[in-house]
Write a structure and sequence with these properties.
Strand content: 15-25%
Structural class: alpha+beta
Strand order of the largest sheet: 2-1-5-4-3
Radius of gyration: 35 Å
Number of helices: 8
Length: 342
Amino acid sequence: MGSLNPPVPDVGLSLALSLISSSVAPALLLDGDSVIVAASQSFREAFEVGPEAIPGCRLADLGSGEWKSPQLSTLLKTTAFGDGPTQAYEMDFRRAGFETRRLILNARRLHYGDGQGVRLLLSIDDVTAARAGDRQKDALIRDKAVLVQEVQHRVANSLQIIASVLLQGARQVQSDESRVHLRDAHQRILSVAAVQQQLATSTLGDVGLRAYITDLCRSIGDSMIRDHDLISLEVTADDSIAPANKSVSLGLIVTELVINTLKHAFPEQRPGRIEVDYRAHGGGWTLTVRDDGIGMPKPPARLKPGLGTGIVEALAGQLGAVIKITDARPGTRVAVVCIPVS
């Protein structure tokens, strides 16, 4: 006599098998012991596995042991009887006679009823080509970095040569006015060369401003301060990071302001101190150059903007900043302030 209650087909398992068989990406359906229940056609094609080798085969025994990985086995066991899935597990797939392939595996326990026990869905993504592309891109970036830094070194060296030629010319001309113009041009080129030299020794992309401004001021001081016991140049800065284009503008501003201070704040061997400071605040920033020299000319009408002032104003405008000059008593305080637009 037949059973009055015939078994009900496991709809969930049938659906899982259908999904596996139609999967475009390589995929496997495993039981709790990592025995293969079903494999997608794409899996068999990608890893050259015949359909006769699939049923009842443990994953670790498939092929010539390419899938035998203690770590993978542990992860699958944890997924089958633990709390979470296996996500983005990377492994090298090594097969005799073939190049090593880089695979990313994701495993998830299927919850469709416990009539057939534990079932795991294992998907495999071959990222070998993508990883090779990443390595090639990284190599190109490194080559570009080397080339750019070499160009920067050459530009900095060329600027130093031009500055030396101008200084020689300034010593030879008879006209005092021409001599002043040549010396001014010499200092302008030195300022650009100093910035260029610092960029040449830094990495591409974002620049740490503390080290950048400190090295820049050290370079300026070495070339323009004859007696470091007489005049000191100190830098304080926070841990701000800036893109290369902003760093160039900030470096030129610092150089112009420091050079201007060295030219005018300490006449007749007057001792003094120059302080350079950079701080970020609320999306904006402030760059300050302060000295304890003779201060601003009095009356104010004697204060005539020069080439350096024009350069600083133009660079500040490019950065969306304003310049504030105040009497530091003693000395002068120049602040370049950028306040973000709300």
